[in-house]
Amino acid sequence: MVDHASGIPAYRQVAADLRDQITRGDLPPGARIPSEHQLAERHHVSRPTVREAIALLRAEGLVVAERGRGVFVRSQRTVQRLARNRLSRAARQRDEGAFKGDAAAGGWTPSTTVKVYFESADPATATLLDVDEGTEVCVRDRVMRADGIPVQLATSRLPRDITRDTAIEQTDTGPGGLYARLEDAEHTLDHFVETVSARMATHVEQAALQLPEGTPVIALTRVAYDTDGRALEVNAITMSADRYELVYELPAD
Fold this sequence. Notes:
By secondary structure, the chain is α+β, with helices and mostly antiparallel strands.
């Protein structure tokens, strides 16, 4: 019950009680929290006060509202992005590279939705790929899910002269993925350069990743180079910051 003499706003007290239940596991991930009416009666507050409490928990990423169903506790599990060896040739040969390996290592079931289309390289893409602006590129647009939850968006762009008549232009690139198909086409990969930043999600990203309002994202741009120093791919990756951990193991010598 809310203590009106405490000086703490009633909605914050209601939110604190629900937060404690979530932390203790009394309300586990996926659980539906009590209705507005039930919470209002339990705490002797108005329903607008309950709505303020729920809005606070949504902003904290603890709960999510589903239209027509209610408000549910969000899973706090994260996908660990293990930097070392995740793009290695050995991982590709085991068909465990990149997202698929990251998700599986954490006990998640990975799945990906893919769209393939073609466009002209814009100035930013042309610069990263070191091609002329307007050069035709193959675009692979993916939504990655862990246990059905969207956690990552990735858009790869490759010069069309590399991808034409290869499985890279198919939604299913086969075992080992895109990088294995590049090497099948005699583009031997040498190294990758990744640039990582954090920012607020766009409205499109917020909808695609099903993010509560105010949730930031991790933005990563990766460029893949072959042994001749040619840029083969630029991949713009967006990860939900509350569902991802970036883990790096760095040598000391």
